[in-house]
Amino acid sequence: MSSTATSLPPAAAPVSRRPLVASVLAAITGSHLVNDMMQSLILALYPILKGQFNLSFAQIGLITLTYQLTASLFQPLIGLRTDRRPAPYSLPFGMTSTLCGLLLLAYAPNFTMVLVAAMLVGIGSAIFHPESSRIARLASGGRHGLSQSVFQVGGNTGTAIGPLLAAAVIVPNGRTSVAWFAGAALIGIALLTYVSRWYQQHLASTAAAPPAAAIAGTGPAAASNALPAKKVGWIIAILLVLIFSKYFYIAGLSSYYTFYLIQKFHVSVQSAQMHLFAFLLASAAGTLIGGPVGDRIGRKPVIWASILGVAPFALALPYVDLAWTGVLAVIIGFVLSSAFSAILVYAQELMPHRIGTVSGLFFGFAFGMGGLGAAVLGVLADHTSILWVYQLISFLPLLGIVAALLPNRRSH
Question: How far is 137 from 135, CA to CA, in rounded Å?
Fold first, then answer.
């Protein structure tokens, strides 16, 4: 077997070595926090929406499916479009769409309008993620894993904060208090305006280079290190199986965690949301690990350990008491969350001339699997029970075994 069948070529060197741009990375990370915090408010509102509109678990899943499927369908298209024609100021426009969805969610008079609000949030995320991931890479100074992890930890931190804010603000004051978070969206718009201005200046400074190289930060080395299209397609398919395993499982764990705790352990809504916050905060912390460790030891070991390594904890979760449920959920969130940055950078290194397309594909597929998982598992919960659903999804991390098929990335 040839060496190219067992290992990847090293990542292409950038056209010009630029230092890490900390201010831009901080701004794009902060805006990711705001964007995902607003998304997670939908998740944290599920018990309130279920009571107000008398929703079934299938309808709860449909809300998740709506905003995540909207994001899933649009993100690859937007990534493909911006690979060909950059649109720096699309980022604040995307945040504005999320803001409109948030305001509509606060005052939606019926379930249909809740779905419209979820769709607006999904559109905002579809615009935000491909371009912001590209900018995190451009600002990385070549430390791609680190920059993606920092960028991702912003999003995961925002996701974790949502339930905490819901418990502290929305549960006591009602659904309309969601509108109070419009101020955070305005901060996000301001941060993204700054980032867009920097991105536009970056594009202008690299205008003399070929368009693909200027945008993606690649040059002739990328072409010389390219793998055959069939092999790239096979590796991408393996990575997507891993994304399916991670996000279908996370959809069940996060979308129905509060209901699981309330039904099995009879805790209050606020107590359940505090448990959800702990799980999501652990996920944010774990995200910071995957990228830098992948930069040092390679992406494959991180991917392997983070998905398959969580299987014993996932399999035990449905059978333990409340205290151990909290502990295992934190471990699962921490370990499993380290996978995405490593998977994304691994894929970007396969196709360095299509950073937007790759980012859009993987973010979109992750959103799609999360939405589909929430919808399918909601239907199953209606026909069986939340407890049975948790037993079923505990086997999903075992799919991490397919990471063994990934080629190793050679060091420089």
Answer: 5
Alpha helices in 166-228 (DSSP H): 171-173, 182-205, 211-216, 220-224
Would the CA dihedral through 228, 230, 231, 232 be positive or negative? positive
The region, left, alpha or beta by phi > 0 then psi within -120 to 50, assigned to residue 351 is beta
198 neighbors 24 (Cβ within 8 angstroms)? yes
Alpha-carbon separation of residue 400 from 141, 286, 292, 297, 327 (angstroms)? 31, 17, 21, 19, 22
Encode burial over 133-170: b for 16+ CB neighbours within 10 A, e otherwise: bbbbbbbbbbbbbbbbbbbbbbbbbbbbbbbbbbbeeb
Q: Is 7 helix (H, G, I), strand (E, B) or coil?
A: strand
Domains of the chain, start order: 15-409 (1.20.1250.20)
Which alpha helices (H) appear in 139-170, and where do they start and end?
144-165
Rounded-to-integer distance, Cα 148 and Cα 292, Å: 9
CA distance 25 to 412: 25
| Per-residue pLDDT in tens (0 to 9) along the chain, 412 residues | 443 344 444 444 343 456 888 999 999 999 999 998 888 888 778 888 888 899 888 898 888 788 878 887 888 888 888 888 888 889 999 999 999 998 998 899 999 999 999 999 989 988 998 888 889 888 888 888 888 888 888 887 887 787 778 778 887 888 888 888 888 999 999 999 999 999 998 888 876 555 444 444 444 444 445 678 888 999 999 999 999 999 899 888 888 898 999 999 999 988 888 898 889 888 878 877 877 887 888 888 889 889 999 999 999 999 999 999 999 999 999 999 888 888 888 888 888 888 888 888 887 788 778 778 888 888 898 899 999 999 999 999 999 999 999 987 544 4
Q: Which two tokens stand for residue 127?
A: 């615009």
> What's the alpha-carbon Rg for the chain, to the nearest Å?
21
Which of 296, 380, 388, 285 is closest to 337 using CA atoms? 285
Q: Count CB atoms within 10 A of the CB of residue 283.
A: 29
Q: Please tell me the pTM assigned to this model.
A: 0.69
Give one word for 54, left, alpha or beta, with left for phi > 0 and alpha for psi -120 to 50. Answer: left
